[in-house]
Hints:
By secondary structure, this protein is α/β, with parallel strands linked by helices. 44% of the residues lie in helices and 20% in strands. It folds into 3 domains: 4-57; 63-96 and 115-305, Endonuclease, Chain A, CATH 3.30.870; 320-483, 2-Layer Sandwich (Endonuclease, Chain A), CATH 3.30.870.10. The two termini are 40 Å apart.
Amino acid sequence: xxxxxxxxxxxxxxxxxxxxxxxxxxxxxxxxxxxxxxxxxxxxxxxxxxxxxxxxxxxxxxxxxxxxxxxxxxxxxxxxxxxxxxxxxxxxxxxxxxxxxxxxxxxxxxxxxxxxxxxxxxxxxxxxxxxxxxxxxxxxxxxxxxxxxxxxxxxxxxxxxxxxxxxxxxxxxxxxxxxxxxxxxxxxxxxxxxxxxxxxxxxxxxxxxxxxxxxxxxxxxxxxxxxxxxxxxxxxxxxxxxxxxxxxxxxxxxxxxxxxxxxxxxxxxxxxxxxxxxxxxxxxxxxxxxxxxxxxxxxxxxxxxxxxxxxxxxxxxxxxxxxxxxxxxxxxxxxxxxxxxxxxxxxxxxxxxxxxxxxxxxxxxxxxxxxxxxxxxxxxxxxxxxxxxxxxxxxxxxxxxxxxxxxxxxxxxxxxxxxxxxxxxxxxxxxxxxxxxxxxxxxxxxxxxxxxxxxxxxxxxxxxxxxxxxxxxxxxxxxxxxxx
Length: 484
């Protein structure tokens, strides 16, 4: 007679089999993802089923359809802005002939190349927050702010107080926070802004507002975007939380990268925010109304940098940021410098780096020496070993490196929220600013070189010295890396 445990295992096994069929034929997941889930569900059927329910299930058809319905094309916005044509002739100024294919690729992904932008780069949270506070206090019409992590700590309270002050002054203040990233901040903290006259949206809120039950737990809005009066924009890796200011003793020194952009390239950041806001707040205004409200002011020339802003997420069929990076790497002639806290690439990304290395391109990859997520770090080490074996130079930064940057040759650099891993490329909602500028490239090259002096270059000996248990765990984490 079958006991209850045997019946349970049989039922779960049948359900798991159906879930795998669903992944293969309906969701059309990548083979490595299916193999990873197959492994977990075979050896840990009950736990595997629970993990799939929490982390594995894709966005529903209804959610994807709603997000696409609410999205506004950047091209639709650009064509309705008066004066943007005056920038048209200068649009490709400063872009080399060999980069025209890259520009065209990003354009076909929906991103306009817009010149005349002033870019300021931050390498720590304190400088970024100090400038952000000044810009927020000077806001005249609107503040749109979106963060993966908005904490109720010292820096979070300071920013929230400014937002409430500006809302009381009559400024149109909108805030989006990610339900998972900002889970430690109570809703009453954000309700302060509502009471002050601002508007607040929670991205992918949990079921019945119970924080522990979130059916979209695996899909996070990882963006960090601020747009002020439609003229000044911020994005990058620095969240609104004290440890991003370098106050976590376990993760010191904390090295991050963020940027401030002034110019018409801010249109794209505004567009990304509005798309997220339209979905979160269920807003349905026509394009012209946003323009009439002053969210897309008349274009101006503020600097020499041409930018294209890319966004990606699980609502997109194409992984736009990853494919753009692959194009940048395979087209590189001289150098490819990568900084990322998590390095878990797929086969396409690895192949692009291999092509660059074997073509004589100077490929450098920098990750932190001190990890914040040990399981992810084990998988990262596994891929870094492969990079060293193929001839890339790998560095461990002496501290925690949270930068998400890609520098190519002498005229391109990308700065944003997107890590070099499968999660950021396919599961998270991300953004990055692709900057065409020899000046900015030179500036960030100097920053990278300075970081290199604070890092240790590792060779194959570094991996051979690892204990057998560490090597075993690296192999396991690599196998399961597509699930992270």
